[in-house]
Amino acid sequence: MTIDVEHWTRRLAEIAERHDVPGATLGILHEGEIGEAAYGVLNLRTGVDVTTDSLFQIGSISKVWTTTLVMQLVDEGKLQLDAPLVDVLPELRLSDPGVTAKVTMRHLLTHTSGIDGDIFTDTGRGDDCLEKYVTGLADAAQNHPLEATWSYCNSGFSLAGRVVEKLTGGTWDAAVREKIVTPLGLERTMTLPEEALLHRAAAGHVTHDGKQTVAPVWAIPRSAGPAGSIISTVADLLEFARMHLAGGVAPDGTRVLSEASAAAMAEHQVELPDKHTLGDSWGLGWERALWDGHRLIGHDGNTIGQAAFLRILPEQNVAVALLTNGGNGAKLYEELYREVFAELAGVPVPHPLGPPSTPVDVDVDPYVGTYERASIRQEINVGANGPVMRLSITGAMAELLQEEPVDYPMVAVAPDLFVCQDPETGNWVPATFYELPTGEKYVHFGARATPRCAS
User: SUPFAM superfamilies this protein is in (predicted)?
Assistant: First the structure.
Protein backbone atom coordinates (compact mmCIF):
# COMPACT_ATOMS: atom_id res chain seq x y z
CA MET A 1 0.00 0.00 0.00
CA THR A 2 1.54 3.31 -1.11
CA ILE A 3 1.50 6.11 1.48
CA ASP A 4 -1.03 8.74 0.40
CA VAL A 5 1.04 11.83 1.23
CA GLU A 6 -1.63 14.27 -0.01
CA HIS A 7 -4.22 12.71 2.28
CA TRP A 8 -1.97 12.78 5.35
CA THR A 9 -0.84 16.34 4.58
CA ARG A 10 -4.49 17.38 4.55
CA ARG A 11 -5.32 15.51 7.75
CA LEU A 12 -2.22 16.88 9.51
CA ALA A 13 -3.31 20.43 8.65
CA GLU A 14 -6.94 19.92 9.65
CA ILE A 15 -6.16 18.37 13.04
CA ALA A 16 -3.23 20.72 13.81
CA GLU A 17 -5.43 23.76 13.19
CA ARG A 18 -8.07 22.37 15.54
CA HIS A 19 -5.50 22.03 18.31
CA ASP A 20 -3.71 25.36 17.79
CA VAL A 21 -0.40 23.79 16.71
CA PRO A 22 1.67 26.44 14.84
CA GLY A 23 3.71 23.94 12.82
CA ALA A 24 4.35 20.21 12.52
CA THR A 25 5.85 17.48 10.39
CA LEU A 26 4.59 13.91 10.07
CA GLY A 27 6.62 10.94 8.86
CA ILE A 28 5.35 7.43 8.13
CA LEU A 29 7.53 4.38 7.49
CA HIS A 30 5.43 1.64 5.88
CA GLU A 31 6.49 -1.29 3.68
CA GLY A 32 9.98 0.20 3.42
CA GLU A 33 8.72 3.55 2.12
CA ILE A 34 8.89 6.86 4.00
CA GLY A 35 6.17 9.44 3.42
CA GLU A 36 6.43 12.96 4.83
CA ALA A 37 3.94 15.79 5.40
CA ALA A 38 4.39 19.34 6.66
CA TYR A 39 2.06 21.98 8.05
CA GLY A 40 2.15 25.56 9.33
CA VAL A 41 4.97 27.88 10.28
CA LEU A 42 8.26 27.38 12.08
CA ASN A 43 7.98 30.64 14.00
CA LEU A 44 4.91 32.85 14.47
CA ARG A 45 7.13 35.94 14.46
CA THR A 46 8.75 35.23 11.10
CA GLY A 47 6.01 33.27 9.37
CA VAL A 48 8.53 30.94 7.70
CA ASP A 49 6.74 27.86 6.38
CA VAL A 50 7.40 24.38 7.74
CA THR A 51 8.82 22.03 5.10
CA THR A 52 9.41 18.30 5.41
CA ASP A 53 13.15 18.92 5.85
CA SER A 54 12.61 21.37 8.74
CA LEU A 55 14.35 20.67 12.02
CA PHE A 56 12.53 20.20 15.31
CA GLN A 57 13.78 19.27 18.77
CA ILE A 58 13.00 15.61 19.40
CA GLY A 59 13.42 16.06 23.16
CA SER A 60 13.49 12.87 25.20
CA ILE A 61 13.46 10.62 22.15
CA SER A 62 17.17 11.48 22.45
CA LYS A 63 17.27 9.01 25.35
CA VAL A 64 16.86 6.14 22.90
CA TRP A 65 19.85 7.45 20.93
CA THR A 66 21.90 7.63 24.14
CA THR A 67 20.81 4.09 24.97
CA THR A 68 21.92 3.00 21.50
CA LEU A 69 25.36 4.49 22.18
CA VAL A 70 25.50 2.60 25.48
CA MET A 71 24.54 -0.68 23.82
CA GLN A 72 27.22 -0.14 21.18
CA LEU A 73 29.74 0.06 24.02
CA VAL A 74 28.28 -3.17 25.42
CA ASP A 75 28.75 -4.75 21.97
CA GLU A 76 32.37 -3.57 21.99
CA GLY A 77 32.99 -5.18 25.38
CA LYS A 78 33.73 -1.84 27.03
CA LEU A 79 30.72 -1.81 29.36
CA GLN A 80 28.53 -4.22 31.32
CA LEU A 81 24.94 -3.19 32.05
CA ASP A 82 24.91 -4.71 35.54
CA ALA A 83 28.36 -3.65 36.71
CA PRO A 84 28.57 -0.75 39.19
CA LEU A 85 29.07 2.56 37.40
CA VAL A 86 31.96 3.35 39.73
CA ASP A 87 33.94 0.74 37.78
CA VAL A 88 33.93 3.24 34.92
CA LEU A 89 33.44 6.45 36.91
CA PRO A 90 35.39 5.98 40.16
CA GLU A 91 34.91 9.70 40.84
CA LEU A 92 31.09 9.29 40.99
CA ARG A 93 29.54 10.56 44.22
CA LEU A 94 25.79 10.50 44.86
CA SER A 95 23.99 11.67 48.00
CA ASP A 96 23.47 8.08 49.15
CA PRO A 97 26.82 6.21 49.43
CA GLY A 98 25.02 2.87 49.11
CA VAL A 99 23.49 3.92 45.80
CA THR A 100 26.87 5.26 44.64
CA ALA A 101 28.38 1.83 45.17
CA LYS A 102 25.58 -0.18 43.58
CA VAL A 103 23.93 1.87 40.81
CA THR A 104 24.39 0.37 37.34
CA MET A 105 23.82 1.40 33.75
CA ARG A 106 20.71 -0.79 33.65
CA HIS A 107 19.24 1.31 36.48
CA LEU A 108 19.83 4.47 34.44
CA LEU A 109 18.36 3.11 31.20
CA THR A 110 15.25 1.77 32.98
CA HIS A 111 14.63 4.85 35.18
CA THR A 112 14.98 2.86 38.41
CA SER A 113 18.05 4.54 39.96
CA GLY A 114 16.00 6.78 42.25
CA ILE A 115 18.24 9.78 41.51
CA ASP A 116 16.05 12.88 41.51
CA GLY A 117 15.23 13.05 37.85
CA ASP A 118 14.54 16.65 36.92
CA ILE A 119 17.78 18.41 37.74
CA PHE A 120 18.56 20.76 34.86
CA THR A 121 21.65 22.50 36.19
CA ASP A 122 23.26 24.52 33.42
CA THR A 123 26.97 23.76 33.66
CA GLY A 124 27.94 25.83 30.67
CA ARG A 125 28.60 25.30 26.99
CA GLY A 126 32.04 23.74 27.32
CA ASP A 127 32.98 20.18 26.44
CA ASP A 128 33.28 19.55 30.19
CA CYS A 129 29.59 20.30 30.86
CA LEU A 130 28.64 16.68 31.59
CA GLU A 131 31.66 16.14 33.81
CA LYS A 132 30.62 19.19 35.84
CA TYR A 133 26.98 18.07 35.87
CA VAL A 134 27.84 14.64 37.27
CA THR A 135 29.95 16.26 40.00
CA GLY A 136 26.84 18.21 41.00
CA LEU A 137 24.82 15.01 41.43
CA ALA A 138 26.50 14.63 44.83
CA ASP A 139 23.89 17.13 46.04
CA ALA A 140 20.92 15.48 44.28
CA ALA A 141 18.27 13.94 46.51
CA GLN A 142 17.58 10.22 46.34
CA ASN A 143 13.95 10.31 45.19
CA HIS A 144 13.31 6.65 46.01
CA PRO A 145 15.44 3.67 47.05
CA LEU A 146 17.38 1.95 44.30
CA GLU A 147 15.05 -0.30 42.24
CA ALA A 148 12.10 0.37 44.60
CA THR A 149 9.91 1.91 41.90
CA TRP A 150 10.00 3.50 38.44
CA SER A 151 10.30 7.25 37.99
CA TYR A 152 11.23 9.08 34.79
CA CYS A 153 14.80 10.30 35.26
CA ASN A 154 16.46 12.88 33.02
CA SER A 155 19.40 13.13 35.41
CA GLY A 156 20.22 9.46 34.93
CA PHE A 157 20.61 9.95 31.19
CA SER A 158 23.01 12.85 31.63
CA LEU A 159 25.00 10.50 33.86
CA ALA A 160 24.78 7.81 31.15
CA GLY A 161 26.06 10.35 28.64
CA ARG A 162 29.08 11.01 30.84
CA VAL A 163 29.82 7.27 30.90
CA VAL A 164 29.72 7.34 27.08
CA GLU A 165 32.23 10.18 27.12
CA LYS A 166 34.55 8.37 29.51
CA LEU A 167 34.57 5.23 27.35
CA THR A 168 34.85 6.95 23.95
CA GLY A 169 37.33 9.64 24.93
CA GLY A 170 35.25 12.43 23.40
CA THR A 171 32.04 14.33 24.00
CA TRP A 172 28.57 12.81 23.95
CA ASP A 173 27.80 15.08 20.97
CA ALA A 174 30.75 13.63 19.04
CA ALA A 175 29.66 10.08 19.91
CA VAL A 176 26.17 10.72 18.53
CA ARG A 177 27.65 12.10 15.32
CA GLU A 178 30.37 9.48 14.84
CA LYS A 179 28.56 6.34 16.02
CA ILE A 180 24.96 6.93 14.84
CA VAL A 181 24.49 9.97 12.58
CA THR A 182 27.38 9.23 10.19
CA PRO A 183 26.82 5.45 9.84
CA LEU A 184 23.13 6.06 9.10
CA GLY A 185 23.90 8.85 6.63
CA LEU A 186 21.69 11.36 8.45
CA GLU A 187 22.21 14.83 6.99
CA ARG A 188 19.85 16.81 9.21
CA THR A 189 20.44 15.45 12.71
CA MET A 190 22.57 17.30 15.26
CA THR A 191 22.86 18.17 18.94
CA LEU A 192 23.93 21.81 19.15
CA PRO A 193 21.92 24.98 18.41
CA GLU A 194 24.71 26.52 16.32
CA GLU A 195 24.45 23.51 14.01
CA ALA A 196 20.67 23.90 13.74
CA LEU A 197 21.07 27.54 12.64
CA LEU A 198 22.38 26.26 9.30
CA HIS A 199 18.96 24.72 8.54
CA ARG A 200 15.24 25.58 8.69
CA ALA A 201 14.70 25.16 12.43
CA ALA A 202 11.46 25.42 14.40
CA ALA A 203 11.02 27.74 17.35
CA GLY A 204 9.01 26.49 20.29
CA HIS A 205 5.75 28.17 21.27
CA VAL A 206 4.01 28.41 24.64
CA THR A 207 0.48 29.41 25.56
CA HIS A 208 -0.14 32.74 27.31
CA ASP A 209 -3.64 34.10 27.81
CA GLY A 210 -4.97 31.54 25.35
CA LYS A 211 -2.57 32.54 22.56
CA GLN A 212 0.54 30.90 21.16
CA THR A 213 3.70 32.99 21.57
CA VAL A 214 7.32 32.21 20.79
CA ALA A 215 9.01 30.52 23.76
CA PRO A 216 11.47 32.75 25.63
CA VAL A 217 14.24 30.11 25.47
CA TRP A 218 15.19 27.96 22.48
CA ALA A 219 17.60 25.33 23.77
CA ILE A 220 17.83 23.28 26.94
CA PRO A 221 21.20 23.28 28.78
CA ARG A 222 23.95 21.34 27.02
CA SER A 223 24.36 19.24 30.17
CA ALA A 224 20.89 17.80 29.48
CA GLY A 225 21.96 16.74 25.99
CA PRO A 226 21.90 12.95 26.48
CA ALA A 227 18.42 13.28 27.96
CA GLY A 228 16.90 15.50 25.31
CA SER A 229 18.84 17.81 22.99
CA ILE A 230 18.91 16.03 19.62
CA ILE A 231 17.51 18.09 16.73
CA SER A 232 16.26 16.25 13.66
CA THR A 233 13.69 15.78 10.91
CA VAL A 234 10.95 13.17 10.68
CA ALA A 235 12.82 11.39 7.87
CA ASP A 236 16.06 11.15 9.86
CA LEU A 237 14.16 10.01 12.94
CA LEU A 238 12.48 7.28 10.91
CA GLU A 239 15.83 6.14 9.52
CA PHE A 240 16.94 5.67 13.13
CA ALA A 241 13.75 3.68 13.75
CA ARG A 242 14.32 1.65 10.57
CA MET A 243 17.76 0.66 11.85
CA HIS A 244 16.20 -0.71 15.04
CA LEU A 245 13.52 -2.54 13.08
CA ALA A 246 16.28 -4.09 10.95
CA GLY A 247 18.06 -5.49 14.00
CA GLY A 248 20.74 -2.80 14.11
CA VAL A 249 21.66 -2.66 10.41
CA ALA A 250 21.72 0.55 8.33
CA PRO A 251 20.16 0.58 4.82
CA ASP A 252 23.60 0.27 3.21
CA GLY A 253 24.35 -2.86 5.25
CA THR A 254 26.49 -1.15 7.90
CA ARG A 255 25.99 -2.77 11.28
CA VAL A 256 25.32 0.03 13.76
CA LEU A 257 24.17 -2.14 16.66
CA SER A 258 24.25 -5.88 17.26
CA GLU A 259 21.02 -7.77 16.67
CA ALA A 260 21.09 -8.95 20.29
CA SER A 261 21.40 -5.39 21.63
CA ALA A 262 18.65 -4.06 19.37
CA ALA A 263 16.37 -6.84 20.62
CA ALA A 264 17.34 -6.29 24.26
CA MET A 265 16.39 -2.61 24.06
CA ALA A 266 12.81 -3.57 23.14
CA GLU A 267 12.45 -6.35 25.71
CA HIS A 268 10.59 -6.00 29.00
CA GLN A 269 12.71 -4.70 31.86
CA VAL A 270 10.32 -3.16 34.40
CA GLU A 271 6.60 -2.61 34.98
CA LEU A 272 5.27 0.94 35.38
CA PRO A 273 3.28 2.03 38.46
CA ASP A 274 1.09 4.13 36.15
CA LYS A 275 0.06 2.22 33.02
CA HIS A 276 -2.08 5.02 31.59
CA THR A 277 0.44 7.76 30.71
CA LEU A 278 3.29 6.34 28.63
CA GLY A 279 2.84 2.58 28.42
CA ASP A 280 2.66 -0.52 30.54
CA SER A 281 6.37 -1.29 30.84
CA TRP A 282 9.88 -0.14 29.92
CA GLY A 283 12.72 -1.67 27.98
CA LEU A 284 16.26 -0.32 27.71
CA GLY A 285 15.56 3.24 26.60
CA TRP A 286 12.30 2.34 24.83
CA GLU A 287 8.85 2.73 26.34
CA ARG A 288 6.59 -0.28 25.68
CA ALA A 289 2.85 -0.08 25.02
CA LEU A 290 0.16 -2.63 24.25
CA TRP A 291 -2.53 -1.50 21.81
CA ASP A 292 -5.33 -4.07 21.53
CA GLY A 293 -2.85 -6.90 21.95
CA HIS A 294 -0.23 -5.42 19.62
CA ARG A 295 3.17 -4.62 21.15
CA LEU A 296 4.67 -1.23 20.28
CA ILE A 297 7.85 0.53 21.31
CA GLY A 298 8.46 4.24 21.14
CA HIS A 299 9.19 7.42 23.02
CA ASP A 300 7.90 10.97 23.41
CA GLY A 301 9.88 14.18 23.77
CA ASN A 302 9.07 17.57 25.25
CA THR A 303 11.33 20.59 25.35
CA ILE A 304 10.44 24.26 25.78
CA GLY A 305 7.45 24.67 23.48
CA GLN A 306 8.17 21.65 21.28
CA ALA A 307 6.81 18.09 21.46
CA ALA A 308 7.78 14.95 19.55
CA PHE A 309 6.21 11.50 19.23
CA LEU A 310 7.62 8.23 17.85
CA ARG A 311 5.77 4.90 17.73
CA ILE A 312 7.04 1.67 16.19
CA LEU A 313 4.99 -1.46 15.47
CA PRO A 314 7.67 -4.15 14.95
CA GLU A 315 5.24 -6.89 13.86
CA GLN A 316 4.38 -4.89 10.73
CA ASN A 317 7.59 -2.83 10.32
CA VAL A 318 5.60 0.39 10.72
CA ALA A 319 6.95 3.54 12.39
CA VAL A 320 5.32 6.96 12.70
CA ALA A 321 7.01 10.19 13.80
CA LEU A 322 5.37 13.52 14.61
CA LEU A 323 7.26 16.72 15.45
CA THR A 324 5.43 19.84 16.69
CA ASN A 325 6.31 23.34 17.88
CA GLY A 326 3.47 24.31 20.24
CA GLY A 327 -0.24 24.07 20.90
CA ASN A 328 -1.86 20.84 22.04
CA GLY A 329 0.57 18.45 20.42
CA ALA A 330 -0.71 15.57 22.55
CA LYS A 331 -4.22 15.87 21.08
CA LEU A 332 -2.81 16.16 17.56
CA TYR A 333 -0.78 13.00 18.17
CA GLU A 334 -3.75 11.11 19.59
CA GLU A 335 -6.17 11.90 16.77
CA LEU A 336 -3.69 11.66 13.90
CA TYR A 337 -2.06 8.42 15.05
CA ARG A 338 -5.47 6.87 15.57
CA GLU A 339 -6.17 7.40 11.86
CA VAL A 340 -2.69 6.40 10.64
CA PHE A 341 -2.50 3.14 12.59
CA ALA A 342 -6.08 2.18 11.78
CA GLU A 343 -5.60 2.68 8.03
CA LEU A 344 -2.06 1.33 7.58
CA ALA A 345 -1.88 -1.35 10.27
CA GLY A 346 -5.42 -2.07 11.41
CA VAL A 347 -4.39 -1.36 15.00
CA PRO A 348 -6.60 0.81 17.25
CA VAL A 349 -4.94 3.49 19.37
CA PRO A 350 -6.33 3.43 22.92
CA HIS A 351 -8.17 6.49 24.14
CA PRO A 352 -6.48 8.27 27.04
CA LEU A 353 -7.86 7.71 30.52
CA GLY A 354 -10.58 10.19 31.46
CA PRO A 355 -13.32 10.61 34.05
CA PRO A 356 -15.59 7.56 34.44
CA SER A 357 -19.11 7.76 33.00
CA THR A 358 -20.46 6.95 36.47
CA PRO A 359 -18.90 8.92 39.36
CA VAL A 360 -16.72 6.88 41.69
CA ASP A 361 -16.86 7.59 45.41
CA VAL A 362 -13.31 7.62 46.83
CA ASP A 363 -12.15 9.06 50.16
CA VAL A 364 -9.51 11.65 49.26
CA ASP A 365 -8.37 12.38 52.82
CA PRO A 366 -5.61 9.70 52.87
CA TYR A 367 -3.95 11.42 49.90
CA VAL A 368 -4.20 15.04 51.12
CA GLY A 369 -0.77 16.54 51.71
CA THR A 370 2.37 17.80 50.00
CA TYR A 371 4.51 15.70 47.67
CA GLU A 372 7.84 17.11 46.55
CA ARG A 373 11.00 16.39 44.56
CA ALA A 374 13.49 18.55 42.67
CA SER A 375 11.73 21.11 40.46
CA ILE A 376 8.17 20.07 41.46
CA ARG A 377 5.82 20.52 44.41
CA GLN A 378 2.38 18.88 44.32
CA GLU A 379 -0.16 19.86 46.97
CA ILE A 380 -3.34 17.79 47.27
CA ASN A 381 -6.26 19.61 48.91
CA VAL A 382 -10.05 19.40 48.94
CA GLY A 383 -11.70 22.55 47.66
CA ALA A 384 -15.31 23.68 47.35
CA ASN A 385 -15.70 21.69 44.11
CA GLY A 386 -13.75 18.62 45.15
CA PRO A 387 -10.10 17.56 45.28
CA VAL A 388 -7.46 19.70 43.57
CA MET A 389 -3.77 19.16 42.82
CA ARG A 390 -1.77 22.39 42.88
CA LEU A 391 1.41 21.90 40.87
CA SER A 392 4.27 24.35 41.36
CA ILE A 393 7.58 24.40 39.50
CA THR A 394 10.47 25.11 41.85
CA GLY A 395 14.24 25.55 41.78
CA ALA A 396 16.20 26.19 38.58
CA MET A 397 13.24 25.25 36.37
CA ALA A 398 11.11 27.95 38.03
CA GLU A 399 13.73 30.57 37.19
CA LEU A 400 13.86 29.34 33.60
CA LEU A 401 10.13 29.01 32.89
CA GLN A 402 8.70 31.78 35.11
CA GLU A 403 5.39 29.95 35.48
CA GLU A 404 2.75 30.40 38.19
CA PRO A 405 1.34 27.41 40.14
CA VAL A 406 -1.41 25.54 38.28
CA ASP A 407 -4.48 23.94 39.85
CA TYR A 408 -5.63 20.60 38.40
CA PRO A 409 -9.19 19.54 39.35
CA MET A 410 -9.15 15.84 40.28
CA VAL A 411 -11.77 13.18 39.48
CA ALA A 412 -11.67 9.69 41.01
CA VAL A 413 -11.47 6.74 38.61
CA ALA A 414 -10.77 3.96 41.09
CA PRO A 415 -9.29 3.54 44.56
CA ASP A 416 -5.80 5.12 44.43
CA LEU A 417 -6.36 6.38 40.85
CA PHE A 418 -7.53 9.86 39.78
CA VAL A 419 -7.42 11.93 36.61
CA CYS A 420 -6.41 15.60 36.85
CA GLN A 421 -7.50 18.12 34.22
CA ASP A 422 -4.98 20.53 32.79
CA PRO A 423 -6.80 23.90 32.90
CA GLU A 424 -5.09 25.15 29.73
CA THR A 425 -5.39 22.16 27.41
CA GLY A 426 -8.29 20.29 28.97
CA ASN A 427 -6.18 17.10 28.78
CA TRP A 428 -6.65 14.57 31.58
CA VAL A 429 -3.49 13.39 33.37
CA PRO A 430 -3.58 10.25 35.56
CA ALA A 431 -2.45 10.41 39.20
CA THR A 432 -1.75 7.11 40.95
CA PHE A 433 -1.26 6.99 44.71
CA TYR A 434 0.70 4.06 46.12
CA GLU A 435 3.10 2.89 48.80
CA LEU A 436 6.49 1.26 48.49
CA PRO A 437 6.92 -2.14 50.20
CA THR A 438 8.70 -0.25 52.99
CA GLY A 439 5.68 2.03 53.56
CA GLU A 440 6.71 5.33 51.96
CA LYS A 441 3.81 7.10 50.22
CA TYR A 442 4.11 8.36 46.63
CA VAL A 443 2.03 9.91 43.89
CA HIS A 444 2.81 8.96 40.28
CA PHE A 445 1.95 11.90 38.02
CA GLY A 446 3.43 12.97 34.70
CA ALA A 447 5.51 9.75 34.65
CA ARG A 448 7.30 10.74 37.86
CA ALA A 449 7.14 9.25 41.34
CA THR A 450 6.99 12.02 43.92
CA PRO A 451 7.36 11.22 47.63
CA ARG A 452 4.99 12.60 50.23
CA CYS A 453 6.60 15.03 52.64
CA ALA A 454 6.84 13.92 56.24
CA SER A 455 4.78 16.86 57.49
Answer: beta-lactamase/transpeptidase-like
Same domain, 373 and 343: no
pLDDT tens-digit series, residues 20-30: 999 999 999 99
List strand residue ranges (DSSP E) for 179-260, in order.
205-208, 211-214, 231-232
42: in domain: yes
Instruction: Determine the average pLDDT of the residues in 142-159.
Output: 97
Domain shared by 266 and 383, yes or no: no
Task: Report if residue 241 sits inside a domain.
Answer: yes
Q: Which of 331, 352, 373 is the last residue of a domain?
A: 352
Helix (H, G, I), strand (E, B) or coil at 134: helix
What's residue 399's pLDDT?
65
Alpha-carbon gap, residue 226 to 130, rounded angstroms: 9
CB atoms within 10 A of CB 361: 6
Residues constituting the chain: 455
Q: Residue 449: its pLDDT value, please?
A: 96
Containing structural domain, residue 399: 365-451
The CB-side HSE value for 12 (13 A sphere, CA atoms) comes to 27
Using DSSP's 3-state secondary structure scheme, residue 454 falls into coil
Of 301, 330, 352, the domain-final residue? 352
Q: What is the DSSP letter of 367?
A: G
| pLDDT for res 264 | 98
Q: Which helix (H) or strand (E) holds 296?
A: strand 294-302
Same domain, yes or no, for 398 and 320? no
Cα 190 to Cα 172, 174, 201, 415: the distances in Å are: 11, 10, 11, 45
Which ranges constitute the DSSP H helices of 19-111? 62-75, 97-102, 105-109
Known catalytic membership, residue 158: no
| Same structural domain, 75 and 100 | yes
Largest alpha-carbon pair distance within the chain?
64
Query: SS3 of 349, please?
Result: coil
Q: In a 3-state reduction of DSSP, which class is residue 413?
A: strand
User: Does residue 357 form part of some domain?
Assistant: no
Catalytic residue among 60, 232, 261, 281: 60
- Asked if residue 454 has pLDDT above 90, the reply is no
Work out the average pLDDT over 282-298: 98
